[in-house]
Design a protein that fits this description.
The chain contains 3 helices and 13 strands, in the order ββββββαββββββαβα. With about 180 residues, the chain is an alpha+beta fold. The protein folds into 2 domains: about 70 residues, Outer Surface Protein A, domain 3 (Alpha-Beta Complex), CATH 3.90.930; about 80 residues, Ribosomal protein L6 (Outer Surface Protein A, domain 3, Alpha-Beta Complex), CATH 3.90.930. The strands form 4 sheets. Strands 11-12-7-13 form a 4-stranded antiparallel sheet, with helices on one face. A 3-stranded antiparallel sheet has the order 1-6-5, covered by helices on one side. β5 and β6 form a beta hairpin. The longest helix is centred in the middle third of the chain and has 22 residues. It is elongated.
Amino acid sequence: MSKIGNKPIQLKEGVTVAIASGEVKADGVKGSLAFKIPDGIEVKIEEGQIKLSQREKALNKSAMLGLTRSIISNMITGVSEGFEKKLELSGVGYRAQVSGEDLTINIGFSHPVKISPEEGIKFALVDNIIVISGIDKALVGNTAAKIRAIRPPEPYKGKGIKYQGEYIRRKAGKAAKAVGAAK
């Protein structure tokens, strides 16, 4: 049985949730999101809380119960507060700029890389830190991962695009290994 799926979700102030025809819709100050409820899972709104349950007990339904609860909880947080991911550019001459809605990154290629945001995503730039924000947690995370994949941090000098606060394991270069082997 899923322990996460059994926890009720508290409705936040300013968020309205409607359940109709197998779909959960959440509306808030930031926007609105919808999610189709998987088969075998019931969703009810009682006393300012959303409660989920399984119709039949099965192993894969228990996993879907926890997943559905997490997605609905993220929807409520997204429409009320929103989500954001921050990416750091580290390297000599690595720059980014926001022009209109598009993000342009200069990261050592022969050409600048231009990224257009998907619907519901906004880019901002603060001191060489790219801020990706939106109401859909999965979309924000996927967009951040795509940008990071353009030039992931390398282990020798740590140059590249990394998440803010991410620790990069550094390797010793050839010169340091040669000195260590001579002893």
